[in-house]
Amino acid sequence: xxxxxxxxxxxxxxxxxxxxxxxxxxxxxxxxxxxxxxxxxxxxxxxxxxxxxxxxxxxxxxxxxxxxxxxxxxxxxxxxxxxxxxxxxxxxxxxxxxxxxxxxxxxxxxxxxxxxxxxxxxxxxxxxxxxxxxxxxxxxxxxxxxxxxxxxxxxxxxxxxxxxxxxxxxxxxxxxxxxxxxxxxxxxxxxxxxxxxxxxxxxxxxxxxxxxxxxxxxxxxxxxxxxxxxxxxxxxxxxxxxxxxxxxxxxxxxxxxxxxxxxxxxxxxxxxxxxxxxxxxxxxxxxxxxxxxxxxxxxxxxxxxxxxxxxxxxxxxxxxxxxxxxxxxxxxxxxxxxxxxxxxxxxxxxxxxxxxxxxxxxxxxxxxxxxxxxxxxxxxxxxxxxxxxxxxxxxxxxxxxxxxxxxxxxxxxxxxxxxxxxxxxxxxxxxxxxxxxxxxxxxxxxxxxxxxxxxxxxxxxxxxxxxxxxxxxxxxxxxxxxxxxxxxxxxxxxxxxxxxxxxxxxxxxxxxxxxxxxxxxxxxxxxxxxxxxxxxxxxxxxxxxxxxxxxxxxxxxxxxxxxxxxxxxxxxxxxx
Length: 576
Description:
Elements: H1 4-16, E1 20-22, E2 25-30, E3 36-42, E4 50-52, E5 59-61, E6 63-66, E7 72-76, E8 85-94, E9 104-105, E10 118-126, E11 132-136, E12 142-145, E13 156-163, E14 166-175, E15 179-185, E16 187-194, E17 204-209, E18 217-222, E19 228-233, E20 246-252, E21 257-267, E22 271-273, E23 277-281, E24 288-290, E25 299-300, E26 303-308, E27 311-312, E28 323-332, E29 336-341, E30 349-355, E31 363-366, E32 369-370, E33 373-376, E34 380-385, E35 392-398, H2 399-436, H3 479-487
Parallel strand pairs: 8-10, 18-20
Antiparallel strand pairs: 1-2, 2-7, 3-6, 3-8, 4-5, 4-7, 9-17, 10-16, 11-15, 11-17, 12-14, 13-14, 13-16, 15-18, 19-28, 20-26, 21-25, 21-28, 22-27, 23-24, 23-26, 29-34, 30-33, 30-35, 31-32, 31-34
């Protein structure tokens, strides 16, 4: 949905440019913008005319000049005036020594009713002597073409310098190029040609006060990084460059780049005074003068090139003047490396190429496409322009090797862990065996044996292994006493199992503190008399340590005397 302001604007445009066709006559209403002049001229010698006014004030002619921001009704006495007339729309810009009155703004300037006509928008520029005016093209850039050529977008620009001897065509240009600015001494013009049915692009070129130049014009080019080529033409090409005049070009060259200049399509004039030549000027260097026919060496850094014409002999018939084409080629001063990568025999291999320094002049390409980072997975063509080893990082990776290495690393780690665990288990088992080898059997007169520190309930006679000995020391086995006991009838068969016949828990031996027992003779063997019942087990938790029962202790434990009724104390068999 359009806004009210837009609707009103459209209505005004329709009212401003009213077109009527009747009897082969086309009528338009045109209102030029303030400060703009419309010049409508016929391209035919005879034929269609343009008329203004009515009745006795009606005027018809082959051309018409409109200005002063006043609506004018215009009639063309032909059905298709756009084929017979052209329209030039001009504005003036003046510069003092400090500033200029305006800029080059590309707009229709009230020419919308003339949209079907071929239009030429011209800006007439004037600078205060000895200054030049400067037009800035850095936003879009321009490139020079032959006067007979046309631009891809059908919009072409023309730059002219005005001298006392006449107008000089500095050049014809298209958008998008290396030309960043132009300076014209004192007087000049800049124009834009727009074909019928097409509008000018909404853009602006700034105008400012330039330098004090001595040449006809000065064109500045900002050359891009990498490889590039620009073609320049002498003024008035293919016609002659003005007599005894100068034309200057200034080149901004990227760092670590070199520039080569070549002249071709050269025509030399007949000179009365001086000689044609080209001069090179660089900062910190002396001027270098060369003939146009001499070979020109490569140059590095910013420099200016000045084309100088002689005082020509023009009185002769068919005397040629000076015209030349100049080709300026720029490339990186560093070496260029081209290589082809074939990965057909390296399955799974991938190359990663990375530019390490974004500000460097290094330019990497894969299959003619410039990239900052390159991944190569198949056969490719690589190009490295102006690159050093410090600018590029190349990484090669093979997927299968990476996986295999990872698997081997894991297996090796698991193997090391398994060996460590195995060693620990072996040490623990060996320690346990060593501890078990020191265990001995313990005799308990009650018929129940258990190891010290055992925390569970003791087993019964039928379940325990009190009669089984893990080891018996030879020094404690008195075999000669056993044989002697058998001879006198005290012991029976030594290999026959005899059940325990000592005191039981219900029968406790009577011990009297006053009973006297003669101390046995030392060195005399006396047979042991088994009591009817064994000593009772002490009433204590299984976790407590074993202590001697009071029943078996004498009245004087300090002296170590035994009860005389118990007889001599016997050591358990197999004990220490």
